Amino acid sequence: MITIKRKMFNSPLLRENKGFLVIEILIAGLILTASIAATMYLFRVGFQHLGRADVSNILSSKLSQSINLIKTFDLEKKSGIEDIGDGVTLAWEARLLNSTRPVMYTAEGSIPSPHELYLYRVSFQLIYKDAKRDYETNIFSYKRLVSASEMLF
Known about the structure:
It contains four helices and six strands, in the order αααββββββα.
């Protein structure tokens, strides 16, 4: 058994391959270094995308709140800026599309509505950190022209 091991270590193939061990270790080190660098790059890119997704989620969560808030504004002011919480700012601009006062026709004559109706197109922007998202919606509103006591006949 001992003679077999000696013959194996003394074979000419093993003597020629002794220097390759250092080269193999260097190549393995280069591969390991490249894989670590690629992994660090992917973590950085993933973190950036996670930050953008967080900004997008915050703006999306504020969208329905901002539309409901716009419905409460006095749109005759035509524009404004509001802080709607969590660092999100709402900038809006309203444009009157049409207004009307409906009339009901009866056999006795025409009766004008006690309300005037308005249709606005509101362009608004949600701003959070460096992100800005533009939206547009139509808002229907009314204004009472006659008080409740005057409505009673």
